Amino acid sequence: NLIKFEGGVSTDKDDNAWALNPDAPKVNGERAHTNRGVQWNVYKNYAERNNIPKSKWNDSFLKMDESTAKSIVDDYAKASGAANFKDPVLRSFFTQNSWGTGKVWASDFKSGRSPEYRAILDWLQKETGLSFQNTGKINPEEAKAIETLYNKDPQGFIKEFAKKKEAHFKTLDDYEKFGKGWINRLKELESEALASI
Asked: Which of 79, 120, 75, 113 is nearest to 97 (CA)?
């Protein structure tokens, strides 16, 4: 689902990834910060850990095939802790929830965040009784608690998660430009998840 909705090489300066990747390779003089949804800085980290020679980074990033993109998504699921979920639906939802932000909950705890922005975080804290304030990665204990909640009513969990994620999207400054794509991806993920139960 994630790979399906991500486009090719992006040089869009309105994307937050543009500012986060000042050393990204260039295409037609423009900074190519993202390819297949994978930011340059995420790719560099992946390439280094997988012993890809630095001399090949630019070319392999710009010509990234689907299998490499999927491998990076799987790698990201492990890094974010989403791989600690046994259920593939939860693994997918939580991989996508933190995709692009680099950390699971860190930004949600900044002062001034609205209830809509924090919707998923506050809901899960209330229902599990856990505090995710220091969570940069979902650990096995947290994953188990969330999965226990999910197993009580999988369909209800999926619908609630999707509803709260949509509320979160609508609080973001770049929703007007990117929101339609985000919502379309979320709706399809929700539909596929419900059909898989």
From this structure: 120
Residue in 182, 127, 129, 191 with CA at minimum distance from that of residue 159: 191
pLDDT tens figures, 39-92: 898 899 899 989 999 999 999 999 998 889 889 888 888 888 999 999 999 998
The 8 Å CB, 24+ separation contacts for 22-25 are 25/57, 25/58, 25/61, 25/62
| Residue 49: other Cβ atoms inside 10 A | 10
Say if residues 75 and 46 touch (Cβ distance below 8 Å): yes
Model pLDDT for residues 147-177, shown as the tens digit of each residue: 999 999 999 999 999 999 999 888 888 888 8
Token reading at 43: 């790719």
Classify residue 173 by its DSSP letter: T
User: Which one-letter amino acid corresponds to residue 162?
Assistant: A
162 Cβ neighbours under 8 A, 6+ residues apart: 186, 187, 189, 190
- H-only helix segments in 12-171: 16-20, 40-49, 57-62, 66-80, 88-98, 119-128, 140-152, 154-169
Q: What is the pLDDT of residues 105-142, one digit of tens each?
A: 767 777 888 889 888 889 999 999 998 876 778 999 99
What's the whole-model pTM score? 0.79
